[in-house]
Write a structure and sequence with these properties.
Layout lengths: L1 H5 L6 E5 L4 H13 L6 E5 L2 H10 L4 E6 L7 H4 L4 E5 L5 H9 L3 E5 L4 H10 L3 E2 L4 H8 L8
Helix pairs in contact: 2-3
Pfam families: GDPD (PF03009)
GO molecular function, one term: phosphoric diester hydrolase activity
Protein name: GP-PDE domain-containing protein
Length: 148
């Protein structure tokens, strides 16, 4: 693992805790601390228990939640996170403004076609999650290759 994380120390990491398991989150947090990855990591989870544990155990951690419901996430979740991924069909301008007003960065997912990308940008999203990053780069007029 050390070799993997030392290849490019400038790379940011998005680590997702899939299970609603605080013990797993604790082990992950210990790994992140031990390997000095906290400053370049964002830890994501759909689960309130995991987010609440991480916020309490490591207030400096950057936390990411997900909004996949018509009503948005409960305020208690919004109070724990630094960024949120909103399922694209729920990423309305009003909802995006709501989160941004709380200082929460907004990502829309999954954006896999040009029209959805344009709509996400117009609605105010700050980033997108996609299965086709090469196409998104082309639509934005950017190279999909890293700078050399």
């Amino acid at each position: 693992m050390d070799a993997i994380f030392s290849v490019d120390p400038a790379k940011r990491l998005l680590i997702e805790v899939k299970e609603n398991n605080v013990e797993c989150a604790a082990a992950l947090l210990e790994f992140v601390r031990t390997n000095e990855l906290l400053e370049r990591s964002m830890i994501s989870s759909f689960h309130l228990d995991v987010l609440a544990f991480l916020r309490k155990a490591e207030p400096a951690a950057k936390l990411h939640g997900n909004d996949v419901t018509p009503n948005g996430v409960p305020e208690e979740v919004a109070g724990l996170i630094d960024s949120i991924g909103i399922q694209s069909k729920f990423a309305t301008p009003e909802r995006i403004r709501h989160y941004k007003a709380k200082g929460i960065k907004v990502d829309s997912w999954v954006i896999n076609d040009r029209n959805a990308l344009v709509r996400a940008i117009e609605n105010g999203t700050e980033s997108v999650t996609t299965d086709v990053p090469d196409l998104v780069c082309r639509w934005l007029g950017r190279s999909s290759l890293p700078d050399q």
